[in-house]
Design goal:
Distance between the termini: 40 Å
Bound molecules: pyridoxal-5'-phosphate
Largest sheet: 7 strands, mixed
CATH topology of the largest domain: Aspartate Aminotransferase, domain 2
Radius of gyration: 23 Å
CATH superfamily of the largest domain: Type I PLP-dependent aspartate aminotransferase-like (Major domain)
Shape: globular
Strand content: 5-15%
Strand order of the largest sheet: 2-10-9-8-7-3-4
Helix content: 40-55%
Number of helices: 14
Number of strands: 14
Length: 429
């Protein structure tokens, strides 16, 4: 099999090599959610439920080093020495745990889903904790399909769908979203979808909304159309929802299992990567209709055993945040989107502002210095000469040449980083 390092990750390597501002890969340079981090750290140190409960209310005064010294002795200790006093010699939380996810995390996922979408998946029968959406998608591909089965994929798309399909011998059937500048959105051609899905080998529809890289948020009509197609053609839907909280300008993420007849044929793949600003933690989950759960869990267990135990404890703290926290996520990204849209337009890019997620898929053919270049050359010019790393648009397409005019910029960086990128683009283009 001819698999290579993904281009997105190669661009990050080039960004480091050339000292470029890295707007290529979709991860932030801002701190993860503190309650979540603390949940993980407390689990690593606390080791047992009993000690964890104590740690939550412990003060420096309670530490052995502070006893008998009125707290004063603790003031000169390093944080490492201080926290050593919290450590539990007994441990359960840095060890193997239940392969399908800590019961506590599966309950938190059930409650979270219920609070957001009014449907509570059964933690025992319908929820499996995995190593991020990436493993969730792979486990689903491996568990539910046979080599030669077709899966409908909307392109441009994240490269993981076609790459993982290739690993498991599945055949992606591509439909192409087309930019409609007048309407300020990307359009799904229903006739194209029907034609592609009419192939008898097609077994599933891969949905990603909000979408990477276009930022498209599928609306009620579009999802109803997909749902109807899945019902009439007896297809499964696998929906990647990792940008569910990042929607702008009145667009809203809708939950596919809530559509008529879809609860029993939809797998939802999600993770804390984007919501918790913790792409390196590798904690995700898959919601499966009960009849698919056993197969998915068998693949997960045999391949990776489980997601990291202490980080699952942190994920519980994230998913138990108040609704206002989740509702507040998009506002910050909207400001960043607007900053980068303005910066790109100022140097000649043509940009349809995304409805969601945190990428700009920008047409560079209107930028004089880049106009004649193929996307890889344009991206290389930007990373080496201008000092900004992006991803060439054709990386998100497998068929056709629609990608040959786009570069993808990630705006999930601090405002200072984005301002530095805009300044380099202004100076270099
Ligand atoms: C659409 C999409 N799905 C999945 C992933 C990977 O997610 P995870 O970190 O949860 O594996 C990404 C990462 O950028 C993505 O954009």
């Amino acid at each position: 099999m001819d698999l290579e390092e993904t281009l997105i990750r190669r661009m990050t390597r080039l960004a480091i090599e050339h000292g470029a501002v890295n707007l290529s890969q979709g991860f932030t340079d801002e701190a993860p959610v503190y309650d979540m981090v603390w949940g993980g750290v407390a689990a690593m140190l606390g080791g047992t439920e009993e000690r964890l409960a104590r740690i939550e209310s412990m003060t420096v005064r309670d530490l052995p080093a502070a006893r008998g010294a009125g707290g004063g002795a603790a003031l000169d200790l390093t944080l490492k020495e201080l926290l050593a006093g919290v450590r539990n010699p007994r441990d359960q939380f840095n060890q193997y745990s239940f392969p399908f996810g800590l019961p506590e995390l599966r309950r938190a996922i059930a409650d979270y889903t219920d609070r957001l979408y009014g449907r509570r998946p059964d933690p025992e029968e319908e929820i499996t904790v995995v190593l991020g959406a990436s493993e969730g998608m792979a486990a689903a591909f491996c568990a539910l399909f046979e080599p030669g089965d077709g899966v409908v994929v909307m392109q441009p798309c994240h490269e993981l769908y076609p790459s993982q399909a290739a690993i498991f011998g599945l055949v992606p059937a591509f439909v192409t979203l087309r930019e409609n500048r007048g309407a300020g959105t990307w359009r799904l051609d229903r006739d194209e979808v029907r034609a592609v899905a009419s192939d008898p080998s097609v077994k599933a529809f891969i949905v990603n909304t909000p979408q990477n890289p276009t930022g498209k948020v599928l609306n009620r009509e579009e999802l109803s159309f997909i749902a109807e197609l899945c019902r009439t053609r007896d297809l499964l839907a696998i929906t990647d929802e990792i940008y569910e909280h990042i929607t702008f300008d009145g667009h809203r993420h809708l939950f596919l299992p809530s559509f008529d007849g879809m609860a029993e044929r939809t797998l939802v793949v999600n993770s804390i990567s984007k919501t918790g600003r913790a792409t390196g933690w590798r904690i995700g989950w898959v919601l499966t209709p009960p009849r698919y759960t056993r197969r998915l869990r068998a693949v997960h267990d045999n391949l990776v055993v489980q997601a990291p135990t202490p980080l699952q404890k942190g994920a519980v703290a994230l998913l138990r945040q108040e609704r206002t926290f989740f509702d507040g996520i998009a506002g910050d990204y909207r400001r960043k989107r607007d900053l980068l849209v303005a910066g790109l337009r100022a140097v000649g890019f043509t940009v349809t502002p995304p409805e969601g997620a945190y990428y700009l898929f920008a047409d560079y053919r209107t930028v004089p210095a880049l106009a004649e270049m193929p996307p890889v050359d344009a991206a290389m010019h930007l990373v080496k000469q201008v000092g900004v790393a992006t991803v060439p648009g054709d990386n998100f397409y497998t068929t056709g040449d629609d990608g040959n005019r786009y570069l993808r910029f990630a705006f999930c960086r601090s405002s200072e980083t984005l301002e530095a990128a805009v300044e380099r683009l202004r100076a270099g283009l």
